[in-house]
Automatic annotation (TrEMBL):
Species: Streptomyces sp. 900105755
Signal peptide: none
InterPro entries: MLTR_LBD
Region (Disordered): 1-29
The name this protein goes by in its record: MmyB-like transcription regulator ligand binding domain-containing protein
Taxonomic lineage: Bacteria, Bacillati, Actinomycetota, Actinomycetes, Kitasatosporales
Chain ranges of the MmyB-like transcription regulator ligand binding domain: 24-131
Lineage: superkingdom: Bacteria
Length: 146
């Protein structure tokens, strides 16, 4: 839950989840709980690796000021990283696309690569093929693809 305070400038998609406006990604309650715990755990691990990083400390302070959910999870002391889950992205032209989402971490670094994949033959794969066909066409609220 977000509070009424001014929101911080989110530096990561995880921070944006807690502080930014709602995005196009939706989660089931279980996915949301796993995602939020992973974001907070990853930030806590980063804070332990970089205790003198003023920007990171400021981000954490700002998130504590705008999100009661962040505060609740931060106060548990959880430490962890992102791994795998599913994400549903709501695309304005083709609707909801549910991806497998894997977060790959380069050992010994802070690099994270997020891979979104769709199983061959799945509804998500079909929607991705449709996006490939419509490409970069610009649509408006009242226009149709044709």
């Amino acid at each position: 839950m977000r509070t009424g305070r001014a929101r911080p400038s989110p530096a990561t998609p995880g921070a944006a989840h807690f502080a930014g406006p709602p995005g196009r990604v939706s989660h089931t309650p279980e996915q949301k709980a796993r995602f939020e715990a992973a974001v907070v755990g990853d930030l806590r691990a980063a804070a332990a690796r970089y205790p003198a990083d003023a920007d990171l400390s400021s981000l954490i302070k700002d998130l504590r000021g705008v999100s009661t959910d962040f505060v609740r999870l931060w106060d548990t002391g959880i430490v962890g990283v992102h791994e795998s889950d599913a994400k549903t992205v709501h695309h304005p032209d083709v609707g909801a696309i549910t991806f497998d989402c894997d977060v790959l971490t380069a050992p010994g670094s802070d690099l994270r690569i997020v891979a979104y994949t769709a199983a061959p033959g799945s509804d998500a794969a079909d929607r991705l093929r449709l996006l490939n066909v419509i490409g970069t066409r610009t649509t408006t609220k009242d226009s149709t693809l044709g």
